[in-house]
Amino acid sequence: MLGAWDFPFADGAGHPGTPISRDGSLLLTGWALGDKTLPDIRVLVDGKSVDEIAPDFRREDIDIIFHTQKPEAAPSGWISVIDTTRFKPGMHEIEVKLVGGILKSHTLGKRHIDFRPREEAREASSAFLRQVLRGDDRHIEERHQHYFGATPGGWRKNPSSAMGFSDQARDIFQTCGATLVVGAGVNNTVERVYQLDIFDYPNVDVATSGGPFPFADASFDGVICENVIEHVPDPKFLVKEIERVLKPGGRIGINGTNLHFTHGFPFHYFNPTEWGMKLLLEQEAGFEGVYHNPDIVGSLRTVLTYFENALAPAGREALARHTFAEIMSALRGSGPESAVAAIRSIAPAAEKALSTNVYFLGTKKN
Questions:
Q1: Is a pLDDT exceeding 70 seen at residue 234?
Q2: Which of 114, 135, 166 is the last residue in one of the domains?
């Protein structure tokens, strides 16, 4: 059996906030695979089983890594939600196990999480949102979450990677008052930070089906938009909405993927360069600031790790026997054929994801 526990983050990882939502929900998510049958996932709190579920949705990243070992249609992603209000406040031990198959049981580890409710933070959040939200006939309020055309419970079949917040985002959290996170995905709940997404993950405060943000002008002291812009069909509209809801002098943290493998199939539309970001942020909108790029080690690690994971196991082993010079020669057409064959053992979806361009040749419709 193989598997991983992606969220909440491991103890001591230094992420701000808490994985407990404003209503006391604790989301756990990850993936699992088995040789012949999928294992179940058992969640234990303080040594007692509280949930047992089976993987029930596809994980794009896992499909690519294990494309030669798993049936194409097999789900691998799992989600469990614990209602922490059922337990005494304080620290509790969470354990996730894979159950079934030859091994019968395999632990994915233990983590310690504070179940203590934070009523004052929840009330402050509700009061702030009542002040800045622009209600319309689509507005539905359920517990701490506000919906504008989005479907309640829609996140359960549309899980997001748990990325965490960047150092830049954490700095804005610490120096600004009310901060909006656009495209929050699965993340921790942070005081004075309000999370927007098209899916209602437990940490999300406002879920929309797209279009204008449901906030009044100049509502926020800071806005964070990380790993989102490439997934938006109209990035100019997105940037203008961020400008509209940000107070004069407010801080913005936003990134774009530039040279990056395609991900989030099929909702990956644009990879903006630094000059594309300048066009959007400084010419189309009234922002000013500086641009940062990851160092070359980080950039190559991201792309090459994806490439290595997408190779068939035999291809990965074969390529490891070649020197870097031999691999580069193979890429130029003059290297060992065994290196070329290993490189071409990549998963078809990953080959498309790493393509440097897409060429369209067509005709106009009548």
A1: yes
A2: 114
